[in-house]
């Protein structure tokens, strides 16, 4: 393979871009299978970070928001209202209004992913912090219910790392 100046430039740009991004956004393994996405907050000290997202078992949490990965259906850009319900341990199911979209938080960014998302309030968060299992079901249009479960062991600690002030 012949390497020309364009390829050399592209290779150099990719290396520089990746090394720059790697210093700012990283993943961090937390207890009980939780994974955190962290952002470096001090430009001179890579150990000073804040947690911006936590994930586990197809679920992504941001402060005040829950996202459940759905079935992928090809590259599109969409965001529609969706009906959601969640069940924590053996308590009664709670209904939520949310989104069915191609990115986290109801965004219609062009991807091949699908997410159900809804806002979580203090009552929801408290219930999750004191539970062991949560089931979430999402329904968009005539697609039927899509249900997933998550083990919430360690959620309180992970969520507090991300959202405590």
Distance between the termini: 54 Å
Count of helical regions: 3
Number of strands: 10
- The percent range for strand residues is 35-45%
Low-confidence stretches: 5-10
- Helicity, as a percent range: 10-25%
Strand order of the largest sheet: 1-2-3-4-5-8-7-6-9-10
Structural class: alpha+beta
Major sheet details: 10 strands, antiparallel
Instruction: State the shape.
Output: globular
Order of helices and strands: HEEEEEEEEHEEH
Q: Which whole number gives the mean pLDDT?
A: 88
How large, in whole angstroms, is the Cα Rg? 19 Å
Summary?
The chain is 21% helix and 43% strand. It has helices at 5-22, 122-129, 155-163, and strands at residues 25-29, 35-42, 45-56, 59-62, 65-69, 79-88, 94-101, 115-119, 133-139, 145-151.
Q: Could you please describe the fold and organization of this structure?
A:
- The protein is α+β, with helices and mostly antiparallel strands.
- The chain has helices at 5-22, 122-129, 155-163, and strands spanning 25-29, 35-42, 45-56, 59-62, 65-69, 79-88, 94-101, 115-119, 133-139, 145-151.
- A 10-stranded antiparallel beta sheet has the order 1-2-3-4-5-8-7-6-9-10, with helices on one face.
- A hairpin with a 5-residue loop joins β1 (25-29) and β2.
- The longest helix has 18 residues, at 5-22.
């Amino acid at each position: 393979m012949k390497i020309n100046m364009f390829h050399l430039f592209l290779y150099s740009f990719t290396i520089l871009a990746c090394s720059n991004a790697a210093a700012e956004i990283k993943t961090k393994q937390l207890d009980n299978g939780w994974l955190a996405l962290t952002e470096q907050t001090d430009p001179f000290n890579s150990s000073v970070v804040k947690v911006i997202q936590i994930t586990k078992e197809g679920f992504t949490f941001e402060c005040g928001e829950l996202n459940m990965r759905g079935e992928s259906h090809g590259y599109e850009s969409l965001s529609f209202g969706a009906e959601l319900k969640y069940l924590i341990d053996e308590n009664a199911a709670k209904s939520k209004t949310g989104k069915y979209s191609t990115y986290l938080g109801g965004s219609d960014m062009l991807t091949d992913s699908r997410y159900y998302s809804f806002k979580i309030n203090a009552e929801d968060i408290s219930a999750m912090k004191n539970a062991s299992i949560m089931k979430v079901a999402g329904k968009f249009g005539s697609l039927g219910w899509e249900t997933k479960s998550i083990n919430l062991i360690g959620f309180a600690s992970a969520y507090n790392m991300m959202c405590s002030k």
